[in-house]
Fold:
Amino acid sequence: MKSMRALTWMILTAGLLAAAGCGGGSAPVTDPADSSVAWPAWYQNPPEDDTVYLAKATATSQDPQFAVDKAELDAQARLASEVSARIQDLMTRFVEEVGSGAEAQLLDKSTSATKRVTEQTLVGARIRKQETVREGAVWRAFVLAEVPRKSADQALLGDISKDEEMYTRFRESQAFQALENAVGK
Structure:
């Protein structure tokens, strides 16, 4: 059983490496100093904006559109991670504040809420800036993606309000007050 699982992981890993190898001829460059092209200033120093979550990504491929697609997927994954971290922080503060014997049940619900809200929020994600340049034999795409912070907070508030017990307890917490202030209610 254990060897079957190890074999499955080896096959999956080999498949992913083969698929990644088809996308471009060079190793990923994460430092502009290692690149033969000038990286956009907006990529090297992304704007600061408290109203949105921002995520940047770069990818290469022999096909310019595939490079863009890969960079967009990476940026969305980074956005998901950032949104999820914010929601988990709020929910952890709530569970710590409320406490009680039902803590495990609340943690379970908060984990589910985090996943649902992150998925809902990413629907509103958009590409703020994008640039594609030739880098030797491949194309390099630069992407800056964003999602409004308010939409994540509204989605969380909406999700919590669907669970009457959780909503009643959450409404009494300081974490709820912070969330309501962020949403502007």
About this structure: The beta strands are 52-61, 126-135, 138-148.
